[in-house]
Amino acid sequence: MEVNNEKTQRYSPLVAAGVFLGLGLGGFFDGILLHQILQWHHMLSSVRPATTVPELELNMVGDGLFEAGTWVMTTVGVVLLWRAGKREDVPWSSRTFFGSILVGAGLFNLIEGLIDHQILGIHHVKPGVNELLWDIGFLVVGATLAIVGGLLIRADQLSGDRQFS
Fold first, then answer.
1. Cα–Cα–Cα angle for 158, 161, 165, nearest 5°?
2. Cβ-based neighbours of 24, under 8 Å, separated by 6 or more
3. Residue 141 phi/psi, 5° resolution?
4. Assigned domain for 4 exists
5. Crossing angle (nearest 10°) for helices 53-85 and 12-29
6. Mind telling me which residue stretches traverse the membrane in this protein (predicted)?
7. What does the pLDDT average to over 2-16?
8. What is the pLDDT of residue 159?
9. Lowest-pLDDT choice from 57-61, 117-121, 159-163
10. For residues 163 and 10, is the Cβ–Cβ distance under 8 A?
11. Are 20 and 80 a contacting pair, CB within 8 Å?
12. Which of 26, 100, 110, 127 would you label with 19, given CA atoms 20 to 30 Å apart?
């Protein structure tokens, strides 16, 4: 009877950490670039346009709550990464880790784009001319990031005898 002494490697803790980091970092990218630097929109700009100081203040609170949420997701990702790093059954893989971050960032775009832009309509990527095209582009970028990330993770899964549970 042959005994297999190899330890089972589990990538799922690393994947979970990367996805949460991707969700948080994707949100930070959106908030910093689209809300603050380019000022294309704020969290509530489609339902409460920032045309007066009180409306701008309300939108800034919405942006702050949004950024607080992305901070929480990033913090959860760091905690999960710390825990994964302490486990002997979690192999370190750049391909899986960065793939997971891409999945998380892509999921951020898809979830935020579908809920805030399409379902609730509380803001759009770039309001005005071609508004729908900008929103669709945001979703396409999200889907592309998630697919590329998933392919990177899958490539690691296929490259060896590892468990992704």
1. 85
2. 70, 71, 72, 73, 74, 75, 76, 77, 104
3. -60, -45
4. no
5. 160
6. 12-38, 68-85, 97-120, 132-153
7. 74
8. 79
9. 159-163
10. yes
11. yes
12. 127
Task: Pull the structure tokens for residue 34.
Answer: 């689209």
Q: What is the pLDDT of residue 5?
A: 44
What does pTM read for this prediction? 0.89
Give the number of domains in the chain.
Answer: 1
Domain-embedded: residue 37: yes
CA distance 158 to 154: 6
Range of the domain at 79: 12-158
Tens-place pLDDT, residues 80-138: 999 999 999 999 999 999 999 999 999 999 999 999 999 999 999 999 999 999 999 99
Please answer whether residues 134 and 126 qualify as being in contact, where contact means their C-beta atoms are separated by less than 8 angstroms: yes
Residue 117 DSSP symbol: I
96's tokens = 């899986």
Q: Is residue 164 part of a domain?
A: no
What the block records as the tokens of 131 is 């508004």
53, 76 in Cβ contact below 8 A? no
Residue with tokens 């704020």: 42
Q: In this structure, are residues 41 and 126 in contact, taking their beta carbons and an 8 Å threshold?
A: yes
Structure tokens at 137: 């582009």
Say if 140 falls within a structural domain.
Answer: yes
In angstroms, the CA 74 to CA 22 distance is: 8
d(CA 128, CA 137): 15
pLDDT over 80 (residue 6) = no
